[in-house]
Specification:
With 196 residues, this protein is mainly alpha-helical. It has a domain of 129 residues: AhpD-like (Up-down Bundle), CATH 1.20.1290. It has eleven helices and no strands. Helix 8 crosses helix 10. The radius of gyration is 16 Å and the shape is globular. It holds the Pfam family CMD.
Length: 196
């Protein structure tokens, strides 16, 4: 059972209008946003930050951003965000082979060296204590420019917030996210955990 009950999508009309963004991303408004709207300034600020972080300004694709989010969420253990990130990666065109093998991104041939550098950055930046070092930096700079690195860290940081929010709240995971979590992550032990 969640720590705080989500409110109706109609509770705050400004949040509802902004949250239409998630219908494209996930196919539904997340329960996390419905909980945040208990303080509408938080829900609105969060949605606007999410939109800014997920905008494509360079070569970091929408699918890669969602895979970066998955690696970050996997590192922190948030099952809610793992399911959301893999669902969004699927909806934003990640290759089937990548979705099926996200757990093996370090060695699987479906991932390029540039993608591996981005996903290694996500893993290192999501660890406590932080593991970003010269090796991570050197690999990033082989493939990405500084603006693209900022985009990646924006995703990692956004999901740091979401991982803390949803794991602490025990946010109930939605059916669409459950479906994607079971399809792509279940073979490696993904389950809803406390997010029921």
């Amino acid at each position: 059972m969640p720590l705080v009950t989500p409110l109706s999508p109609d509770h705050d009309l400004e949040t509802k209008e902004l949250a239409e963004f998630f219908n494209e991303t996930l196919g539904f408004c997340p329960n996390s946003v419905l909980t945040m709207q208990r303080r509408p300034a938080i829900s609105k600020a969060f949605i606007n930050l999410n939109k800014a972080v997920m905008a494509n300004e360079g070569r970091v694709t929408s699918a890669l951003k969602r895979m970066i989010a998955w690696v970050s969420s996997n590192a922190t253990g948030c099952r809610y965000c793992q399911a959301h990130a893999i669902r969004a990666a699927e909806r934003y065109g990640a290759e089937q082979e990548q979705l099926d093998n996200i757990w093996e991104y370090k060695t699987h041939p479906a991932f390029s060296d540039a993608e591996r550098a981005a996903l290694d950055f996500s893993l290192a930046a999501s660890m406590v204590p932080n593991q970003v070092d010269e090796t991570i930096k050197e690999e990033l700079y082989k493939h990405w420019n500084e603006g693209e690195i900022v985009e990646m860290l924006g995703v990692i940081s956004l999901f740091g917030y979401l991982n803390r929010w949803n794991d602490s709240m025990g946010t109930t995971v939605e059916e669409g996210a459950i479906e994607s979590g079971e399809k792509y992550l279940g073979k490696h032990g993904w389950e809803r955990g406390k997010h029921v």
